[in-house]
Every structure is written in structure tokens, then in C-alpha cells.
């Protein structure tokens, strides 16, 4: 599990005073980017290697309001299987309250062939820091 924290800004809220639905996806993207960083992978590193993460599917479940000033933990669970895709599932937590869940299927796009990489965990491990490669090795199956 990987965790980062964001603070809800006033301009992210809608006329009802809670976070606009599209912002939840932005919080998820922030969590994904920070997870790659924790693995020792900057997006520029992946791009230089000719690959990049792609989101194939996401679903958001809104469970509780988030409002301006709330501290939100973005908790990401990374899971790999045997195929070309992997899971990055996220909980947005305000204290003990799960405000939303974001379930997602992802892949790594080969920039030359425009196809998904066959072994995304292996490609990421090869580029990750030693500690990041171990975290990838230890990630559970999807």
C-alpha cells in the first residue's frame, strides 16, 4: 500500500460545497504519480524508456462528502497478475471515513508499437530503484 495526502482546496468544490466529481479522478492520478515516485520511477524515466502508464478503466464510488480544508489520505493498492494489465485501486480517506473508492485497470503503453507491454511488472522492476523493485516483487496478485 502506498499513501500520500492532499488538502481539499476551495476551488475544487462545487456549488453544493463539496468536492466536484472530476476532482476525485485528479486525486487518484496524484496517488498514482506518487506511487511511481515511491518506486523510484519518474514519468520522464518511463517516457525515456519508451513506455508510459495508461488507464484502461476507472470507477469511482462516492461514499462521503469531502469539503474545503479536509485532509485526504490517498491510499493506493497496487496489484499485478500474469497479463498485460494491473490494478491500482484507491481509497480516499478523511480520517477513519472512506469518502470514495476508485477502482482502476491500467497497463503500460509501448510508445513505438502503441500496444500494451506484455509484462508490466517486469518492465517497471527493471527501471525502478532497488527498493522500488522489491516493492513491486512483493505486490500481491490481482
Automatic annotation (TrEMBL):
Q: What class of enzyme is it?
A: hydrolase
Q: Give the top-rank taxon of the lineage listed in the UniProt record for this protein.
A: Bacteria
Origin organism of this chain?
Answer: Actinomycetospora rhizophila
Q: InterPro entries of this UniProt entry?
A: 4-hydroxybenzoyl-CoA_TE, HotDog_dom_sf
Cite the EC number. 3.1.2.-
Entry keyword set: Hydrolase
A GO MF term? hydrolase activity
- This one is known as Acyl-CoA thioesterase
Q: CDD domains this protein is in? A: 4HBT
Amino acid at each position: 500500500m502506498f499513501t500520500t495526502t492532499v488538502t481539499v482546496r476551495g476551488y475544487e468544490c462545487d456549488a453544493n460545497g463539496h468536492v466536484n466529481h472530476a476532482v476525485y479522478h485528479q486525486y487518484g492520478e496524484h496517488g498514482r504519480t506518487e506511487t511511481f515516485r515511491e518506486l523510484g520511477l519518474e514519468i520522464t524515466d518511463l517516457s525515456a524508456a519508451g513506455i508510459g502508464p495508461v488507464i484502461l478503466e476507472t470507477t469511482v464510488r462516492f461514499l462521503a462528502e469531502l469539503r474545503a480544508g479536509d485532509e485526504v489520505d490517498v491510499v493506493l493498492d497496487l496489484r499485478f497478475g500474469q497479463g498485460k494489465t494491473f490494478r491500482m485501486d484507491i481509497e480516499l480517506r478523511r480520517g477513519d471515513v472512506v469518502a470514495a473508492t476508485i477502482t482502476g485497470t491500467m497497463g503500460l503503453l509501448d510508445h513505438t508499437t502503441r500496444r500494451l507491454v506484455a509484462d508490466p511488472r517486469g518492465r517497471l522492476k527493471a527501471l525502478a530503484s532497488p527498493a522500488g523493485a522489491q516493492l513491486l516483487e512483493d505486490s500481491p496478485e490481482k
